[in-house]
Amino acid sequence: MIAVVGLGKAGLPIAATIAESGIRVIGVDVDAKRCEMINQGVNPIPEEEGLDELVRKHGGKSLVATSNYEDAERCKAYIIIVPLYVDEAHNPDFKILESAFRSVGRILNEGDIVVLETTVPPMTTESLAKKWLEEESGLKLGEFYLAYSPERIMTGYSLSRLREFPKVIGGVDEESGRRAYELYKKFVPNLHLVSNARTAEFIKVIEGCYRDVNVALANELYKIAEELGIDFYEARRFANHEYCHIHLPSTGVGGHCIPVYPWFLIKEMERREKFSNAKLLKVAREVNDEMVGYWAEKIVLGCMAVNKPLNEIKICIKGITFRNGVKELYHSRNLALARLLMDKGLNVFVYDDLFTEEEVEELGLRWMEPDRADVVFDCFSLRLTLKDHNEMLIQKF
Amino acid sequence: MIAVVGLGKAGLPIAATIAESGIRVIGVDVDAKRCEMINQGVNPIPEEEGLDELVRKHGGKSLVATSNYEDAERCKAYIIIVPLYVDEAHNPDFKILESAFRSVGRILNEGDIVVLETTVPPMTTESLAKKWLEEESGLKLGEFYLAYSPERIMTGYSLSRLREFPKVIGGVDEESGRRAYELYKKFVPNLHLVSNARTAEFIKVIEGCYRDVNVALANELYKIAEELGIDFYEARRFANHEYCHIHLPSTGVGGHCIPVYPWFLIKEMERREKFSNAKLLKVAREVNDEMVGYWAEKIVLGCMAVNKPLNEIKICIKGITFRNGVKELYHSRNLALARLLMDKGLNVFVYDDLFTEEEVEELGLRWMEPDRADVVFDCFSLRLTLKDHNEMLIQKF
Fold it and tell me: Residues of B numbered 198-217 whose beta carbons fall under 8 angstroms of chain A's beta carbons: which are they?
């Protein structure tokens, strides 16, 4: 019997996958209502393809959700997959993680194994996680086992990723690695044991860094192309080939993952006073975060070509989620763009297929259908549409 | 009959490819000795796979080389593919390019077409090249045609690249684009007409920028991995997949191409006072250029673990070319590394499979076989080998 601590977007797919493999799962989540849904066979993450079926099949049967850690006491293995947030200064806030580990520590028995899946700064498992478990359990590493295996989910495709994508796992010591590998092998087909937990942690973080730096490169090249009067998308189509993978430009990088991971490395290097070891990562973060300002300026320039006084122009920001098709606003650059334009005193409305008028208003924003606006900026296609405007003026920008 | 101006590593493969397609070629090159070789059917670039055969077959027959532009006067099409160097301040030095264009301009007739292949800053074809041709020929664009099509060769694979790789072409006006496309279609199977010359120029440059930034990212992540005690290569192996392409670390980026192209965009943005438009490109250049210093420090630290006084330690830098297997030293970071260590007063020798002892000495360097040295740094594998050293000390670094 395996316990999965955290039944969110990352935890539930893995809990369901384990249940589907024939192993009984106790899922622990602080959200009692969510647990109840799962136990009734109702999937709380409908956008996750294939999850409805698995939760219907296993919820309340071989996958039992609970808010009470003691219900998981008889488990021999604990998988921890709870969120890690970062504060305003980009430092990770370990509160939730610490609470989960300490709770598991309190019910930990000799011979048990704990595997962390949450993306964390390298060395978190061997230092903090180990300490929390030892302090609460009274056991020493060696009496229990501890490993790290990063989730590689992507909302909407998490189940197929678990089935098909390579997954790495590494122990804080050799025996932990070996045991964790044997455990995961039962439900992850494409599994790779790496040298240690630290390496596994690093693997996940650098994957995110690759994405962040390459989105920054795309954004920078987009700005240069615009400046030179070149169609970036045309150039990108022909520049890309087997060895060249220029990404797509955007309003920046949002969500819980990509904009957060580079900071894990930047902050660690700064702590060690190795500032020059992370300067590319840092500038990439800047470039991406500055894109909101770039688009705001484009939109304001667009407004200047509309045949109306600026304060009468209705601007609609279309698409406020951090990624197209995922109803999630965490560090959404599109939402930041709407708020930045509002701060400039402009007449801003938002529209998003995934949000009702009421939900938009609850966010302190005004809702409008794009058709009724004078200026529409589509955050995903980056297209700016102007109604009744002076084309001559636009050419000049 | 087509003239190819410049029979170097980029020009000769294209001249030979055109000859092989059944079109007669006049090749123009300032190097009379090189022309003679070609006319005798001897390939001056033996490392280029398949070129021996083509030069033997066509040299002096359908591919006639000359140092005299007037011999190319009856050609209706001119392909210019001469080097463009950059000065110490990273500004392009157009001297060679200008000379080639002006020489072609003097023999240009109404209806002729000129295509530039050299990688240049975007807008060079429509501004400088057009001006040079107009001034020398007395003709106006429209009376002649002008286009740009970037070479995408890679020494050793240039012929197969010309046969298989997508190649783009764009005119400074629509008619030029159309005519250039028809011309090139005769000998380039995978050809794509793009909006204009400027776009074609940009395509080539951003491909290089992708490489430079991604090598910088690999170098930065390598440094972080070292700092954290993680095997970068192991992490990279598992981080990379269909959507993640972390490159290999190195001593930096050398050669005529990749380290030069980002500066084309950086300098243009600086000229326009759009400094923030190219800051990622600029930091990537810095990160790559600083790698020589990084490795020098590693080597010095390695020396400290050798059981000998520092001034008696023989250091061998293995591999001095800018790229493994290509006998070319332009902006070689490996050579820069050897010189940096010499500047520190260390006892430095170099070794390279592609250079004889005499050739090494002509460069003002001392030659030594790696076996005889106390410390060997292999610039391509980045492996540091120490003879008779204190292993305990090494662990500490």
Answer: 198-199, 202-204, 206-207, 209-211, 213-214, 216-217
The reply to whether residue A221 touches residue B206, judged by beta carbons under 8 angstroms, is: yes
CA of A116, closest CA in chain B: separation in Å? 18
Give me the pLDDT at residue B394, please. Answer: 64
pLDDT at B231: 98
* Integer Cα distance of A244 and B207 in angstroms: 6
A98 touches chain B (CB under 8 A): no
What average pLDDT does the segment B228-246 reach?
96
CB atoms closer than 10 angstroms to residue A391: 8
| Topology alike, domains B204-289 and B291-396 | no
What residues of chain A lie within 8 A of the CB of B243, using their CB? 211
Q: Is 80 exceeded by the pLDDT of residue B121?
A: yes
Q: Which architecture characterizes domain A2-195 according to CATH?
A: 3-Layer(aba) Sandwich (3.40)
User: Does the beta-carbon distance from A224 to B277 stay under 8 Å?
Assistant: yes
User: Does the distance separating the beta carbons of B206 and A236 come in below 8 Å?
Assistant: yes
Q: Under CATH, what is the fold of the domain B204-289?
A: N-(1-d-carboxylethyl)-l-norvaline Dehydrogenase; domain 2 (1.10.1040)
Element (H, E) at B148: strand B145-148
Cβ atoms of residues B55 and B42 within 8 Å: yes
Q: Do A228 and B287 touch (CB under 8 A)?
A: no
Average pLDDT taken over every residue of chain B: 95
Distance from the Cα of A171 to chain B's closest Cα (Å) equals 14
Q: What is the mean pLDDT of the segment spanning B373-387?
A: 95
A276 φ, ψ (degrees, to nearest 5): -75, -10
| Cα separation, A299 vs A391, whole angstroms | 15
Q: Crossing angle, helix B197-228 and helix A261-271, to 10 degrees?
A: 50
Neighboring chain B residues of A214 at a CB cutoff of 8 Å: 213-214
Superfamily of domain A291-396, CATH level 4 = NAD(P)-binding Rossmann-like Domain (3.40.50.720)
pLDDT at A391: 72
- Whether residue B235 lies within 8 A of chain A, CB to CB, comes out as yes
Q: Which pLDDT belongs to residue A397?
A: 53
CA A91 vs. chain centroid, Å, equals 16
Question: Amino acid letter at B134?
Answer: E
B168 interfacial to chain A (CB closer than 8 Å): yes
Q: Where are the domains of chain B?
A: 2-195, 204-289, 291-396
Lowest mean pLDDT: which of B101-110, B322-331, B362-371? B322-331
Give the pLDDT score at A124: 98
Q: How many CB pairs under 8 A join A and B?
A: 151
**Residues 253-272 of chain B whose Cβ lies under 8 A from any Cβ of chain A:** 265, 268-269, 272
User: What is the 8-class DSSP label of residue B188?
Assistant: -
- Per-residue pLDDT at A366: 97
- Which parts of chain A sit beneath pLDDT 50? none
